[in-house]
Amino acid sequence: MELSVFNIKGEDTGRKVQLEDSVFAVQPNDHAIYLDVKQFLANQRQGTHKTKERSELSGSTRKLIRQKGGGGARRGDINSPVLVGGARVFGPRPRNYGFKLNKKLKSLARKSALTYKANKNEIIVLENFDMAQPKTKDFKNILAALKLDNVKSLIVMDDVSENTYLSARNIPNVSLMRAAQLSTYAVLNNAKLVLTEQSVELINQQFKG
Predict the structure, then answer these.
(1) Region labeled Disordered — which residues (predicted)?
(2) 106 in a domain, yes or no?
(3) End-to-end CA distance of the chain
(4) How many other CB atoms sit within 10 Å of the CB of residue 23?
(5) Mean pLDDT, the chain, as a whole number?
(6) What is the pLDDT of residues 166-192, one digit of tens each?
(7) 63 assigned to some structural domain
């Protein structure tokens, strides 16, 4: 697949880049995408939730009412879970939600996501650029030229300089990412995928295996 290369003014440069069929034209695997996205979201969870159980609450251990004959539930002490302010039964404990996936499955998921973007014509190739100074207004002008003002977009570059990062960080619906860090979730979580020429070369080389 070939795509035209645009400059930062939104003009067609007349050049074209080749998107490898082994990366951008595979047979998509929805289940692989599901697992990869599920893993990504699971890894974002802190897992620091905690509630106090019966043995962790302070309070008298005096038996409140007799064991039988009262007509209500048994309650051993003031920390009983059946009482307001009592302990919680089987409450959440700190845990790690992460799980492992093999490299081939993650690679297939990433290539499937890129294939969906390519099939829907949601990929724009932009010539290599860098911001001379951190200026949000100049970056907004680039987005306007590409008609991405109000479109949730992911801009993938071979390397993100500090000036470029500072220029884009306060713009809503725009995120920057290095090509080597491209993930399935990042691709699918944005309406448009903007690839620089250099990032296309890196993706073709690194992800085709």
Answers:
(1) 45-78
(2) yes
(3) 18
(4) 22
(5) 93
(6) 999 999 999 999 999 999 999 999 999
(7) no
> In this structure, is residue 126 part of a structural domain?
yes
For 36, the token pair is 């990869």
Sequence-separated (6 or more) residues with CB below 8 Å from residue 174: 139, 143, 148, 152, 153, 155, 168
Token readout for 198 is 């250099």
Give, as one character, the DSSP assignment of residue 9: T
Structural contact between residues 1 and 122, judged by C-beta atoms closer than 8 angstroms: no
> 105 in a domain, yes or no?
yes
Residue 202, SS3 per DSSP: helix
Give the residue numbers spanning the domain of 156: 2-29+100-207
Each residue's pLDDT tens digit, 32-85: 999 999 999 999 999 999 999 988 888 888 898 888 988 888 888 899 998 888
Per-residue model confidence (pLDDT) at position 31: 98
- C-alpha to C-alpha distance for 163 and 37, rounded to whole angstroms: 30
Determine whether 93 is exposed, middle or buried from the number of CB atoms within 10 Å of its CB (0-12, 13-18, 19+).
Answer: exposed
